[in-house]
Amino acid sequence: MRKGVMSMGEKKGTSHAKMRSHKDPDAWKKSMDPVDSIYKVTKSFPNEELYSLTNQMRRAAISVPSNIAEGAARGSKNEFIQFLYIALGSLSELETQVIIANRLRYIAKRHEMHRIL
Questions:
Q1: Of 15, 18, 58, 53, whose CA–CA distance to 34 is shortest?
Q2: CA torsion, points 68, 69, 75, 79, in degrees to nearest 10?
Q3: Cβ(27)–Cβ(84) under 8 Å?
Q4: Are 14 and 7 in contact (CB under 8 A)?
Q5: Which ranges of 18-117 does DSSP label H, i.e. alpha helix?
Q6: What is the CATH code of the structural domain delimited by 26-116?
């Protein structure tokens, strides 16, 4: 670490920075649940959706915790915030895809949509 620059986990007046893991932020922990849900629900999608909606939903779901992790690993608060915005964009994309899956009747119940996200 450069002199005068603190890491995200470092407190003023300490000589050693506390190493933070990308798994520490609550947002990362909570963003892992929809990944599990999306993989489970897309298993029942028609085979013709495997390389389209199924793939898109899985990639968007994975993108959320992945971007949070990448941002947390960066050296600055501003970079972390930028990656949080990217994760938010992926979450919006995923929400749209869940709505599409519901409209196509791949997700049977409206309450199941809210459970997924």
A1: 58
A2: -20
A3: yes
A4: no
A5: 26-42, 53-73, 77-103, 110-116
A6: 1.20.1440.60
The CA distance from 61 to 54, in Å, is 11
What would the two tokens of residue 116 be? 């997924």
Q: pLDDT tens digits for 54-108?
A: 999 999 999 999 999 999 898 799 999 999 999 999 999 999 999 999 999 999 7
- Sorted by where each begins, the domain ranges of the chain are 26-116
Closest CA to 105 of 46, 25, 64: 46
4 φψ region: left (φ > 0), alpha (ψ -120 to 50), beta (else): left
In terms of Cα–Cα distance, which of 96, 72, 75 is closest to 84?
72
Residues 6+ apart with CB under 8 A from 34: 61, 64, 94, 116, 117
